């Protein structure tokens, strides 16, 4: 009996020790549910449409965060979506960053915004926020072609795989014609609220507000720095959007055409100048345009003006190519630049047709033809024939450098010297008359009666 008691006692002791050890291990689990603490954080807003201007801003913001030796970047994402290529570039920027990146969704992160969030190390959402609905659409708002949808679906799947998230959820957000049992029926796309995102592993945590988020990572609001877009970057984001880019080109080209039909340099020319300046400024700040593109555009304008006075076609053709090259090369995408320019040229051609129909070509040609009538009543006096002055002699009343005034047979005559400098008071002789141009040279000794 004593042996049995001893065994039982040892068993109880082992069980007690096991329970104590298990309790210690379990006590550590809640601590692991809290996020790692960080020393320095940078807050970066990702708002409005995802486009090239935002991409340029985020490149600067991440570089600045690294320069400040931050170890945590919080992206506050609130976007309806945007360009797939821009989202892809931003996703690559996040993946290549050595910093820990948290995507904080306080409102919405649809389409391209979801892709950006999936590339972050963690996703944190607030109650009432949502993500998903990532089917790409065209400018008309319809679903894009199958090839584009397939490629984008693979990009979303790859982003989900980065942090071991269910790739079918990402695909269900994109593929409208595919059924995903338990996620969505065919003919719809998947979007997630914060609770379902957490259940499906697409949200790592849910917090009530910004302060709770900062507390989660051990960051004080006083020490955290926010990197905001500059005024120039905001202008660049606005200008580089496809719709605004097309509008600026339309305004610029139409302004030139209207200005050609108006006397002097007026409102249309000023508006055109402002439109083109905004176009190049926005693309320059965004990092897409440089001085070569601006120079090509200005050279093209100059050559087109010269073509008016030096007809022949070659100068004008080179000018047109320079203008197109400058505008398209300054755009963030050649295809988009050509499309925007094509729309602008079409609208400008329609406006030019309407103006010519209303005012005729005379309205345009009058801009380059002298319109003042030269009549005796308005004080015009035709120059008299001075060819009889050839061979006549006189004296220089002023120095000739080479223009000057000479006194020829008692009459003051404006003239130019045939060669070098002629001092005042020197004898001169008229050697040539071309219209109103009188040419004299210093009279040499023993040159009586000689003329050229």
TrEMBL record:
Top-level taxon in the UniProt lineage: Bacteria
Keyword annotations: Membrane, Signal, Transmembrane, Transmembrane helix
Subcellular location: Membrane
Keyword Membrane among record annotations: yes
NfeD integral membrane domain span: 244-357
Membrane-traversing stretches: 238-258, 313-332, 338-356
Main location: membrane
Plastid as UniProt keyword: no
Residues spanning the signal sequence: 1-35
Stored Gene3D superfamilies: 2-enoyl-CoA Hydratase, Chain A, domain 1, Nucleic acid-binding proteins
All residue ranges annotated as the NfeD-like C-terminal domain in the record: 388-441
Limits of the NfeD1b N-terminal domain: 43-224
PANTHER family: INNER MEMBRANE PROTEIN YBBJ (PTHR33507:SF3)
The protein's name: Nodulation protein NfeD
Taxonomic lineage: Bacteria, Bacillati, Bacillota, Bacilli, Bacillales
